[in-house]
Here is the input.
Amino acid sequence: MYETIKTELQDGILTLILNRPDKMNAYTEKMSEELLHFYKEVNHNDNVRVIVVTGSGRAFCAGMDLSVGGSTFSSEQSSEEYRDLGGQVSLQVYEVNKPVIAAINGPAVGIGMTMTLPMDIRIVKKDAKIGFVFGRRGIGPEASSGWFLPRLVGIGKALEWTLTGRYIPTAEAVEAGLMQYESEDPLAKAYEIAREIVENTAATSNSFTRQLLWKMLGQEHPQASHLVESKFLHWAGQNDDADEGIQSFIDKRKAAFPMKVSELPNFFE
Amino acid sequence: MYETIKTELQDGILTLILNRPDKMNAYTEKMSEELLHFYKEVNHNDNVRVIVVTGSGRAFCAGMDLSVGGSTFSSEQSSEEYRDLGGQVSLQVYEVNKPVIAAINGPAVGIGMTMTLPMDIRIVKKDAKIGFVFGRRGIGPEASSGWFLPRLVGIGKALEWTLTGRYIPTAEAVEAGLMQYESEDPLAKAYEIAREIVENTAATSNSFTRQLLWKMLGQEHPQASHLVESKFLHWAGQNDDADEGIQSFIDKRKAAFPMKVSELPNFFE
Amino acid sequence: MYETIKTELQDGILTLILNRPDKMNAYTEKMSEELLHFYKEVNHNDNVRVIVVTGSGRAFCAGMDLSVGGSTFSSEQSSEEYRDLGGQVSLQVYEVNKPVIAAINGPAVGIGMTMTLPMDIRIVKKDAKIGFVFGRRGIGPEASSGWFLPRLVGIGKALEWTLTGRYIPTAEAVEAGLMQYESEDPLAKAYEIAREIVENTAATSNSFTRQLLWKMLGQEHPQASHLVESKFLHWAGQNDDADEGIQSFIDKRKAAFPMKVSELPNFFE
Here is the structure.
C-alpha cells in the first residue's frame, strides 16, 4: 500500500493519483520513493495498457514540499552520492514500456511540472498555474528537465521560460508543444485518448514505438533507427499482432490484437 | 526504365512520380528498389537542381501494398540480415545532394507518410488523409521515422501521433511543422518553391546547406558545425559562385551562378 | 575602447550596441574581434546580470560588410587554418554565463541574423527584414548556424528558410520559434524581460540553467542532465541563494539573492 499515491485499474487504463490533497500534492521523499517503485513494477504488468497520471483535489502538484523551510534542498550525502529525487523518477519514466498520459488537473510548478516531461502526452486544465520557477527559488532545473524540456518545446522557449521563471499561460504552453491539449476536464480528455489507444492499437506496437522515439532522440544518425526498426519489423512479421492488424484492415473490421507487452523482446539492449 | 515510378526533368526541376495510380501508389519491394536506384543516380546528375516528389492519380501513397495479406511483413531473411525497405530509401534520401520537395497530392499513410520525412520541404493537399498508423496494424515505425519524426515536430507531437495512430488534420500538421504548407494544389506550390530555388540560389550553396543541416542534427557541440562551415566558406571564397553572388548583390541584379554541384568537394567525410 | 561596438551598464543590465550606424552595422573583422573580446570579458563581470544586444540606428546588422566586393570571403589562410569569424563569436556566446537577449531593432540578414542564434531570447521589430540569405550570395551558413538553427525552429523550417534564402515575415518567425516576440519597440521589450530576470531570479540559478540547457542539447541520454543537475542541487542546498529563495517564498516577500555568478563552481568540466 502506498501512502502518498494511489492507483486504480480499469479496462486496461491505470490511473496513478498523486494523493496529498491537503498539501496540494506537494512532492516529498516518500512520494518520490513510491513513484519510483510504481514505475518499476508497472513494466511487468500486462494488464496495464496505458497509464494516466493526475492529482487528487484541486492541484496536480504544487512542487517540492517546502514545509521544512530553507533546508529543503540540503543533504547529508556527499556531492558524489547525492542524486536528485525527481531525476531518479524521470529516468524510470523514460524506461516505462507503456504510454503515459499526464492529466494536469490544476497548479503544477517546479517538480510538479518537470515530472510530466518524460511522459508522452500532457493535457492541462485551462488556465492552471504552471511554470518552471527554479530561478525564483535560488535552485535549478531538476528531474532531468535540462534534457527533456528543449526536446519538447525547442531551445528558445525552454530558455525563456526557465530564465524568467514566469508563469506560463496554458494557451502558450499548447502553442509551444509543452501541452498537447488544454481542457476544462483534463482527466476526461486523458481517458478519451487512453481508450482510443487501448481500443485501436497493439500493445506490442505501442511499447516499441514509445521506447524507439525517446531513445532515437539521442542518436547521431538515422541509421540507428533503421537498424532497430528492422529488427522489430522482422519480429512483428512473424507474430500474431501484425497478422491481425493487416487482416482486420483487409476485412474492414476492428482489430483484436492478441499479444501482451511481456512477449515483446527488448530491442534496445 | 522504371516500372513503379517515373521521372520528368524540366528547367532543372526533376519530378519523381510514384506511379501505381490504380493501387493508390501502394509501396512494393519493386518500388523500393527503384527509388533506391533513383536517389543514388540523381546525386551524379548536375542538370537536376531540385527534386519534386509526387503521386500519380488521386493518392500520394496509400502505404505498404497489403495485397498479400497478413504475411506482408514476414521475411525469409534472418533477423540479422533483414533490413526495412523504407529505411534503406530514407538513408539514401538523407544523402541526396539537392533539395527535395514532397508534393503530397492526396492520401499518405504509413510508408506513404514516413518516406517524406527525410525530404526538405513537405506540402500537403488540404484535408488529405495522413497519419502514422503502424500501431493500428500491429507493426511499428519504419523508414527511420523513429529518428526523423521527433526532429521535425518535437517529441510531444511525435509520440501522440504514433501512439494513437489517428489521422492528422492537415492544418494541425502544418501547425506542428510536419508540413510546411497546405494547398489545394500542392504540386503547383512545390514548383513555385522549386523555381524560386533554381532562379535565385547557387547549386553549390544549397547542396552544402542541405547536407550541413541534416548532419549537424546529430552533433553534440556547435563546434562541429563551425569547423565544417569554415572549410566550406574558405573554399567558396576562392570560387566563382561567391564572387558572382556578391558582385550581383552590389550591382543590384539577379545572380547567374556558374558552378555545378559536382564541383563541390565532400566536406563531410 | 571599442571601435565598432559600445557597451552601457545600468542596474545589472549591460547593453551591447553594434555601432556602425552609417553602414547598417555591417559586420567586419574588427567587429568580430571586438565581440569576441567582449563576450570573453563579460563572463568575469559580476555586475552584469543580463546582456541585451541591439544595433545603433535603424538596422540591427545588415550582414557581412561587402564593400571589398567579390573577394569578401577570400582568405590568405590555408583551409586548415581558416576559421569563420562569426562562428568563433557564436562559440563564445554559447559559453557566456549570463542570459543574453537580442533586441533586433531592424534589418538582420546573414551574419546579422545568425549571430543571434546562440543568444537566449530574440525579440524582433515588427516587419523588419530578416533572412538566411547565403544561398543567394553563393556562400553558406556561418556562425555555427548549421547546428543552432534546427534546434530553434525544427529541421523543416530551417531547411525551407536556408534553401530558398527568402525573407521571413516576422510573424512567421515568431510562430516558428525563431523569435520569442515581435514588437514595435524591441529594445523596450528586451529591457522589460531583463528587469524581470534581474528582479526575480538568482544569478547563480540563471547562470547554471543557461549552461545546462544549451549543453544538454548535445547529450544522448537524460542521465547526463540528471547527474549535473544533482551536483548543482547539492551545492545549492548548502548555499545562501536557495535558502533565501525558499524563505522568501514562505514569507510571501520578494527574494533578495545574495550570491554572485563568480561563486558558482563550473559543473560542466
